[in-house]
Design brief:
heterodimer; A: about 400 residues; alpha/beta; eight-stranded mixed sheet; 13 strands; about 35% helix; B: about 450 residues; mainly alpha; two-stranded antiparallel ribbon; 23 helices
Chain lengths: ~400, ~450
């Protein structure tokens, strides 16, 4: 019996879990996350990471021809078979792949790609079609139908991403649990009650206000519980992941975490910039997984890494790349199907559209499976339609 | 109807941004009060001195120079953004500014990369903000900004691009799935083929790429051009209704009352799309005065009304930029052509926390009250961001209380009728004001 069923049967499912008596919380929720099967940790690489220099198709005709200045030589690559190799700075990810924990999904995108950062990111966040504008994110819609508290979706960052915004229930963005708690907790705020009014907008504001207060307190209380001494690589990005790990270790009832690493808009001198960013990505993710493994929590965690678009096959005149379309995506999870780990060979450098490798996999197929297998919810209800099943989890 | 002072606070808050108690004239009727606001509304363009730009010269530039130029351009747009905010705050023609802000959300167009287009489009919105919607629609449709943004230049006889045609119907005029079909969109795109601008930004139709064939649009067949389509669209009353509904949600309340909406649409349509006629009708309606406190202020409204209340000299550009970014409302940078979704979408946990702190941050350097922890919102305290925020100048409290001597401070500052607060705050002191601007109720207008 999962938590939701338990609550239903005992008749105490209410507007917020805050209402649940503390003895019940202590008994029911102390062990592990019960809201869903696993936790989902989303990592956004902002700026359009060049997927072709991430998992490099060194064995395919067309790679070196088009990238004479920025192509990475085969010797440097961390090989995965005779056609592909990881960027040399991604040793940790390569290792995860070797161990069968990381699936590479190549040629991910959507029909009629839009090469604008902001429009493309919107499409990834809202899971809309390219000619459709949605105001809620895919995780926000998940929260709308499955969550009652802002803390059930936590973004480590200054602003809440569109992906995490629902119509009724959105997640919470913070950079530091203590600072956030201090922001919203004061004698004055504590005294402001919950007025009964007929003004729907005012009621909404007080609902968010009280939810924010409760969530900030809950998150900070959980965070305080855990003194996490782990040392993280990956500079600030590593610290963001450390905050997530610290919260996860505290048994917080948060199924969705979100964070970003920016700076991938590499039009000029890409090799240097991308290497530097990959050191952070690789260092952060490796430390994160090691940290979770210590408490055997990786088995309950799915990590996904995406970027709004890939780059053009041909390098530009300033040792960089311009906005492209299809891209590579990573899913890290202990229960992936071994055949799915080999997805990377779906890439074609001959069949181009406006100079870009074409998309073969709709990104929403990946969302669909994560919603179903990680968060265990009805994906169609969240995404509005059905997509191909990639069989990542078999 | 003889207005109460509370009615007038509401009118000024919505039609403008804010008015001090002593600046409000109690009149015999609402009509007089409304007419007074519409009087003397002078349109003033944002006064920004852009260097002359030679497009021919630009073509010959190296990539590096072009990149530098783009950076300079973005800098200009940021400066224009700041100027507009300042103008909203200092200009006493609040109605024109408010309407321009409304149209900026309706004809949403991202121009953050180009200051020339930014000023061009803003000027079109501003000039027609209270004029004729027909002129406004024509102006926007022929602007270099919108022609670029919605890919009209790529809409050619043999390679149609339907972006503009679709948004024209769905967002700008008729409303989603109202009275038009996918086939109409395709045909409308043909009618607009060849619409472009010259290097100086003047609108023209290139005959060679304009489709001269017959089109069937809204059930009529003819060799239509773009202007014909605009007329057909304006003839359809649903255009008036769609615009009226947007006006209603921006100026009255989220929850639309069908009768009141139809009333508004009627006035708009019968006046041949006279925006002033519609707005006057709205502000003179009794139902408008029942909508007090039922709109969540947009971040720009929040900042500008604060600025007006406390007569702040708008501070550093960096501050206004950071606030716009954190609160999710950056001028000239709408999320997409549908504009800012607004209403409850302005608020989530993090943004509400910031907005609750913002009042005291602005008028009291971040301290809500002495007894509180001086820690600010983490969005403001983190080292990186601290650099962005320069605190606001101190409020001249004597002046503030002078200007609002006989006001009920709660009624003046807060639009909700929250009984919990209403009884609590009558005293004219700084502490009261600080409390009031830190309530969820203060987020409403």
């Amino acid at each position: 019996m999962n938590r939701r069923e338990f609550l239903k049967r005992t008749g105490i499912i209410t507007a917020g879990t805050i209402m649940i008596p503390s003895f019940l919380r202590a008994n029911m929720f102390s062990a592990k996350l019960m809201l869903s099967k696993k936790r989902l940790v989303v990592i956004q690489l902002s700026g359009g990471n060049d997927g072709l220099n991430t998992v490099v198709p060194y064995g395919l005709d067309g790679y070196y021809n088009n990238r004479s200045g920025i192509g990475i030589s085969a010797e440097e690559l961390l090989k995965i078979g005779d056609q592909f190799g990881f960027h040399p700075k991604l040793a940790g990810l390569h290792d995860l792949h070797e161990k069968g924990l990381l699936a590479i999904i190549n040629s991910v995108g959507y029909p009629n790609p839009n090469r604008s950062h902001f429009r493309s990111m919107d499409i990834w966040h809202t899971a809309s079609d390219s000619n459709e504008y949605k105001t809620t994110g895919w995780l926000g819609r998940y929260m709308d139908s499955n969550c009652h508290n802002a803390y059930e979706g936590i973004e480590i960052g200054g602003q809440l991403s569109l992906a995490m915004k629902g119509q009724e229930q959105s997640g919470i963005a913070l950079t530091n649990p203590k600072a956030f708690y201090d922001t919203i907790h004061s004698d004055f705020f504590n005294e402001l009650g919950d007025p009964v009014t007929e003004n729907g907008e005012l009621n909404y504001l007080y609902k968010v206000f009280n939810d924010t207060k409760n969530s900030a307190k809950y998150i900070f209380d959980q965070y305080k519980l855990k003194n996490n001494p782990a040392l993280y690589q990956g500079a600030q990005f590593g610290q963001q992941l450390k905050q997530i790990a610290t919260l996860i270790k505290s048994d917080i009832q948060t199924p969705v975490f979100y964070t970003s690493l920016g700076g991938f808009d590499t039009h000029v001198n890409q090799p240097f910039a991308q290497s530097r960013l990959f050191e952070q990505l690789n260092g952060g993710v490796t430390s994160f997984i090691e940290d979770l493994e210590k408490d055997d929590l990786m088995k309950d965690t799915t990590i996904v890494i995406f970027s709004e678009f890939g780059r053009r096959l041909k390098q530009n005149a300033s040792r960089g790349t311009d906005h492209g379309a299809a891209n590579v995506m990573f899913v890290i999870d202990k229960d992936l199907e071994s055949s799915a780990i080999k997805q990377y060979n779906q890439i074609d450098l001959e069949d181009l559209q406006d100079g870009d490798p074409k998309f073969k996999v709709d990104f929403r197929s990946v969302y669909q499976e994560m919603l179903a297998k990680t968060l265990e919810v009805d994906a169609e209800k969240v995404l509005g339609k059905k997509f191909n099943n990639l069989g990542l989890w078999g | 109807m003889k207005p109460t002072i509370s009615h007038l606070y509401h009118l000024h808050a919505r039609a403008e941004f804010f008015a001090h108690h002593n600046d409000i004239k109690l009149t015999y009727s609402i009509e007089q009060a409304v007419d007074q606001i519409f009087k003397n509304q002078k349109v003033e363009d944002i006064d920004y001195n852009l260097p002359r730009w030679d497009p021919e010269q630009n073509k010959k530039q190296s990539d590096k120079k072009k990149k530098e130029m783009r950076k300079t351009w973005r800098g200009h747009v940021r400066a224009i953004n700041h100027l507009w905010l300042k103008q909203m705050m200092e200009n006493d023609k609040g109605l024109v500014e408010k309407m321009t802000l409304f149209w900026h959300g309706h004809f949403a167009c991202r121009t953050v990369d180009n200051p020339y287009l930014t000023l061009e489009l803003n000027s079109i919105l501003r000039k027609n903000a209270l004029g004729s919607f027909r002129d406004l629609l024509y102006g926007v449709s022929k602007s270099a900004a919108m022609i670029g943004y919605l890919h009209l230049r790529q809409n050619k006889k043999d390679q149609p691009n339907e972006d503009f045609a679709r948004e024209l119907c769905e967002l700008f005029t008729l409303g989603r799935d109202v009275d038009y079909t996918e086939k109409d969109v395709t045909e409308i795109a043909r009618a607009f083929s060849g619409w472009t601008t010259d290097l100086k930004g003047n609108w023209l139709v290139r005959p060679r790429i304009h489709d001269e064939g017959e089109k069937t649009i809204f059930g009529k067949t003819g060799n239509y051009g773009g202007e014909d389509v605009l007329e057909m669209i304006l003839e359809n009353k649903n255009t008036a209704k769609h615009i009226a509904a947007k006006v209603y949600r921006f100026f009255v309340q989220e929850l639309v009352n069908e009768d009141h909406l139809n009333e508004l649409a009627d006035v708009f349509y019968k006046s041949n799309y006279d925006i002033t006629a519609m707005m006057k009708h709205l502000f003179k309606s009794e139902w408008f005065y029942q909508s007090k406190g039922k709109i969540i202020k947009s971040p720009i409204e929040f900042m500008v009304s604060m600025g007006k209340m406390f007569e702040l000299k708008y501070p550093e550009q960096k501050t206004t930029e950071a606030l716009q970014r954190y609160l999710g409302h950056v001028l000239f940078d709408p999320p997409n052509v549908a504009g800012w979704p607004g209403g409850r979408q302005w608020i989530d946990a993090s943004r509400l926390a910031l907005r609750l702190r913002l009042g005291s941050l602005i008028i009291n350097k971040g301290y809500v009250m002495d007894e509180l922890s001086p820690e600010l919102d983490e969005m403001i305290t983190s080292k990186q961001k601290k650099k962005d925020i320069k605190f606001f100048e101190e409020v001249d409290w004597n002046k503030f209380f002078d200007k609002n001597k006989d006001a009920n401070i709660f009624d003046l500052l807060v639009r909700s009728d929250n009984p919990d607060l209403h009884s609590k705050y009558k005293v004219h002191e700084m502490k009261t004001v600080l409390h009031l601007v830190s309530t969820p109720d203060f987020q409403l207008t």
